[in-house]
Structure formats: C-alpha cells, structure tokens
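Re: the request from the purification team.
They wanted to know what the chain is likely to look like in 3D before they choose a buffer screen. I agreed to run a prediction and write the result into the notebook, where they can find it.
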Amino acid sequence: MPKAFAPITALCLASALALATPAAQAQDAAPATSLVVGAKVYDQNGEEVGQIAKVSGDRVAVSIDGNGLVVPKNAFVKSSKGPALKAPKAKIVAVLRQAEADAAAVDGALKPGAEVRSADGAAVLGRVMAMAPQGAVLTTSEGNITMPRAAFFLSARGLAMKVDEKQFLAGVRAARAQKKGG
C-alpha cells in the first residue's frame, strides 16, 4: 500500500489542476467504469502517472512512485489510453513532493508541549499533550481531545489547525455531545 495517502488530499492536487490547459479542461469526464483498482492513470499528455489503488465513494486513491494521491472522481478526464488527470505529470509529482515536505514539517512540529493555533493564527486552541496512533491529544479549554494529524498544518506562527476558533469549539462541543448521547 502506498505510504502517504493520509496527508495528501484532493486539495493538494487542486492547485495543479487549476493550472491545467484549457484543452485538457474541455475534455470529457472519465467514465466511472474506467476508475477501477489496478487501472493505469495518465496525465493530460498521455504519460503514465501511476495506477488506481482504491476507489471509495467519490474519491480515488492513485499510487504514484510509491506515494498516494487521493482525488475526486471528477479530477479525471477520458483519454485514448484510459483515465487521465487534468495536469502534466511533472506538476502532479511536484504537488506530491510539496505535500510530503509539508507533512514532514507538521510531524516535526507536532510534539508534546507544542502550542496549537487557529487557522488564522489569532487564537491558541490548545497544547499538544501527547501523540496517539489516531493523531495528537490536545489539552484545550474544553478538556482533552484527540485530533487527526490531517487536521494540522504549519503556519507562519507555528503549528495550527485548519479551522478558526469558533469552528474548533463548535466541533469539540458537538463531538462531546455525540459521545454522551451515543
């Protein structure tokens, strides 16, 4: 199984796909029947990029050079060779490498005692108390909570979460209420 599916999401490829040529964007969508495990995946120019490792709902995991990329089904277009991503291979690989570097930076900062800020950096949401298999255990004003690694990024002000303070507090409270009720 490819190693980096979790930190690399459809958002990572969005910047690459936005720069795809108009000709590639005008192509027909790849038929869902072509998006199957084991199918080869090509770039917008017909160069082989990798192969489909998993299909789950609207998401497709593609194995590329030992890494994984998860994209929505609509990121694919139909080509004469098979399903293709709407970007050149060099751009796709560059996005993967950047995501890998970003994930390594987060892993380096995600240590006990680290302060965790809101996405805009304005609020301190908590501190990392410990690392767990599921992610990081944070000490917050609402009590301790475990957050997945994918929820974090490295901002100019340090370790941060991909939500603002209001969204974080609402999410924590909702999770606590659900846990009590279920």
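For the purification team: The chain is about 30% helix and 35% strand.
Please add any questions underneath this entry.
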